[in-house]
Amino acid sequence: MIATWWAELSLVMKILWVVTLSASLIFVIQSILTFIGADTDANFDVDVDTSMDGADLSNIDTGANLYTFRNFVNFCLGFGWSAILLQASISSPVLLILVSALIGVALVMAVMYLFKLLSSMQQSGNINVQKQAAGCEGKVYLTIPAARGGSGKVQITIAGSVREYDALTESETVLKTGTPIRVVDALDANTVLVEEINSYTV
Question: What would the CATH number be for the domain defined by 129-196?
Answer without folding.
Answer: 2.40.50.140
